[in-house]
Amino acid sequence: MPSRGTSGSPRGYIVPVGGAENKDGDRPIMRRFVRIAGGEEARIVIIPTASELEVKGERYVELFEDLMVESAISLPMDERSDAFLDKNLRVLERATAVFLTGGNQLRLSTILGGTPVAQMLRRLNADGVHIGGTSAGAAIIPEHMIAGGPSGATPRADGVILAPGLGLINRIVIDQHFRQRDRIGRLLSAVSLNPFAIGVGLDEDTAVFINRDNVFEVVGSGGATVIDPTNLDYSSMDSARPGQAVSLIGLKLHVLAEGARYDIESRTAIAPEREPAKV
Amino acid sequence: MPSRGTSGSPRGYIVPVGGAENKDGDRPIMRRFVRIAGGEEARIVIIPTASELEVKGERYVELFEDLMVESAISLPMDERSDAFLDKNLRVLERATAVFLTGGNQLRLSTILGGTPVAQMLRRLNADGVHIGGTSAGAAIIPEHMIAGGPSGATPRADGVILAPGLGLINRIVIDQHFRQRDRIGRLLSAVSLNPFAIGVGLDEDTAVFINRDNVFEVVGSGGATVIDPTNLDYSSMDSARPGQAVSLIGLKLHVLAEGARYDIESRTAIAPEREPAKV
């Protein structure tokens, strides 16, 4: 369950990104993230733990500094003991936003899971600090994290590996590099295991900005694929043998491009406003 | 529009196969096809035109003969003039079933389109002859044929190339090698161009047997992905620029594995009967 805030301020944005966000051109996702984080007053802490490459955090420091934030700090934590250190908690406490880089989501969850840093991330978000993550950093955001699974369009009985995530939100399951790695089958598998959650598949260079009311807006050049199992009439997931194809009847599907929104609570997709016709 | 029959007998089965059907083991798709075609009294004509490989037709002759049909004949037609020859029409006229092999669906449509052979295939099916096809041979079956398009999960403004097909059925659009070649984006693109048709994505080694009432049953080891745009609330397909991601709100999605059925007329998926629990 998401943490309850103590400060009385509304929850911060939750911003999963599908990976490979634009870093050289318009950078619409990074710009929007900086804007919600406070613009010139943004203090962004980068957690590069998903990757074993030391340079990854520094890359994002440069990116955020280039967008004129007040400060951008990389906070490497390579062992669980790092996530217990007071000095690291003190760095996090000053952030207006936290960004989790890509890499391996199981590295993120095994190093941070259950530590004071993970608890603080939940509390900070509840108290109004915005938390984003790309690729593995997006996958770990929800309560139930997709840790692995084969690619392909068809859900299978063993089509997805789930693990506990950071738990900032429990109503959606996130998959990333969605179109690029052909992951609709494993997202369908995840949603059909227990249809209480909505599946959100994020293409590369595509983010959803989830506001305090759990309404999100799509930003970026790809699509967010929403699988809503509310009216699932039938699933053979319980009786299928490993590797066997599964029948799923009655799913709702939306594909949302930039500007489209989705209300996670009411499970309603909202079309983008029409651009005025260009003559 | 599908042809109207002249004999008063019900329409034959229409059997699109997703490609790479099992040919060595149980061969469930081929066996079922032979059974509906008359079993030991089946006279099957194979049209290998989609492929430039002479051997392709002969391969299916062996496959069908191995399943103990009365006759299996390959009818090579490599030029349009072949599809005007009386001797070829006479071979087709004796068939209880016709099978179109895989290859390139544009080769099929450019050689057969508008010829007496194409007209005869439509009339034969209307009069009770069963027509199946695999891969390219499946794609060409409907009125609107998917001729090409990029792979990936996200529909794009230029995400699919449509061409006129054989026109045996006009209520569905078929894509094949569905899971294996990651084609949900182009099927979504096809369906959203004009939401009157249902999209059916067939995995390899997976067929739908469409009966005279336009109810189909899934046979094989993969899934049939059904995209039903009946309740499409919003599509940005009309205003999207080439390559741009498209928003589609309110699609229905079913994934159907072996034994599940779908009523194309009422747009209703029907769950397979539960197997008795194995203790």
In short:
The first copy, chain A, has 279 residues and is of the alpha/beta class. Chain A has seven helices and 16 strands. In chain A, helix 3 (86-93) runs parallel beside helix 5.
Topology:
Two copies of one chain form a homodimer.
Chain A: E1 14-17, H1 28-37, E2 43-47, H2 55-66, E3 71-74, H3 86-93, E4 97-100, H4 105-112, H5 116-126, E5 130-134, H6 136-139, E6 144-148, E7 161-164, E8 172-175, H7 184-193, E9 198-202, E10 206-210, E11 215-220, E12 224-228, E13 234-235, E14 248-256, E15 261-263, E16 268-270
Parallel strand pairs in A: 1-5, 2-3, 2-4, 4-5, 8-9
Antiparallel strand pairs in A: 1-10, 6-7, 9-12, 10-11, 11-15, 12-14, 13-14, 15-16
Helix pairs in contact in A: 3-5
Number of strands of chain A: 16
**Count of runs of 4 or more consecutive helical residues of chain A:** 7
Radius of gyration of chain A, taken over Cα atoms and rounded to an integer in Å: 18 Å
User: What's the SSE pattern of chain A?
Assistant: EHEHEHEHHEHEEEHEEEEEEEE
User: Which structural class is indicated by helix and strand composition of chain A?
Assistant: alpha/beta
Per CATH, the architecture of chain A is: 3-Layer(aba) Sandwich
What is the CATH T-level topology of chain A? Rossmann fold
**What kind of assembly state do the chains in view correspond to?**
homodimer
Helix content of chain A: 10-25%
Shape of chain A: globular
Q: Which regions of chain A have little confidence, pLDDT < 50, spanning 5+ residues?
A: none
Domain module count of chain A: 1
Q: How many angstroms does the end-to-end distance of chain A come to?
A: 50 Å
Tell me what portion of residues of chain A adopts beta-strand conformation: 25-35%
Mean pLDDT of chain A: 90
CATH hierarchy, class of chain A: Alpha Beta
